[in-house]
UniProtKB/TrEMBL annotation:
One of its GO terms (cellular component) is ribosome. One of its GO terms (molecular function) is acyltransferase activity, transferring groups other than amino-acyl groups. Pfam families: Acetyltransf_3 (PF13302). InterPro entries: Acyl_CoA_acyltransferase, GNAT_dom, N-acetyltransferase. Residues 11-153 form the N-acetyltransferase domain. Keywords: Ribonucleoprotein, Ribosomal protein, Transferase. The keyword Chloroplast does not apply. This is Acetyltransferase, including N-acetylase of ribosomal protein.
Length: 190
């Protein structure tokens, strides 16, 4: 078994999945507002499968989307992390490593996603030496796009794409792609 993932920021801890995470994560993934930029809220079984998939990715790749909690109270906020996408149909920019986040509503608007994402970008570029990290979301997901821009990722509209796992006519099909490379990261980290 791999070592527990542990990244710390001023206010947050990112750590490996624990059994106690299932209930708050299932509640969060069942919330239609949290899941409004996804095809649908997740069932309890789908949430369990998502955690199992993340644990398998941690074993295989050494990183995954992991729980994020507050240092002060250990409150479960959601997840943030890096992942190698593994859709049945490839993304137009595969292979890649993506950074992503999903937080419960009470954690929105407090800078938690940006704070944890910056720690994961640092880990990706400075610890494991990735050349590029991407992030993508539905064109309508403006809150996530703001986080992507805030952490220094850039978007070229020519890279926008139809998500291969959605029907071309799905309202969520059009996705935007944000990128950040190691050289740009290093130039901003002086």
């Amino acid at each position: 078994m791999t070592q527990d993932i542990l990244l710390e920021t001023e206010r947050l801890i990112c750590r490996s999945w624990q059994d106690a995470d299932l209930e708050p994560f299932a509640q969060m993934c069942a919330d239609p507002e949290v899941m409004r930029y996804f095809p649908e809220p997740l069932t309890y079984d789908q949430t369990t499968a998502l955690i199992d998939k993340a644990k398998a990715k941690q074993e295989q790749d050494g990183f995954c989307f992991v729980p994020v909690e507050t240092k002060e109270t250990s409150e479960f906020l959601g997840f943030v992390g890096l992942s190698i996408p593994a859709y049945p149909k490839p993304l137009p920019f595969d292979p890649c490593v993506e950074i992503g986040w999903r937080l419960k509503r009470s954690a929105w608007g407090k800078g938690y996603a940006s704070e944890a994402a910056l720690a994961w970008l640092r880990f990706g570029f400075e610890t494991i030496g990735l050349d590029e990290i991407v992030s993508f979301t539905s064109e309508t997901n403006i809150p996530s796009q703001k986080v992507m821009a805030r952490v220094g990722m850039g978007r070229d509209p020519a890279d926008d794409f139809l998500h291969p796992m959605l029907s071309d006519t799905d309202v969520l099909a059009l996705h935007v792609l944000y990128r950040l490379d190691r050289e740009t990261w290093a130039s901003r980290r002086m």
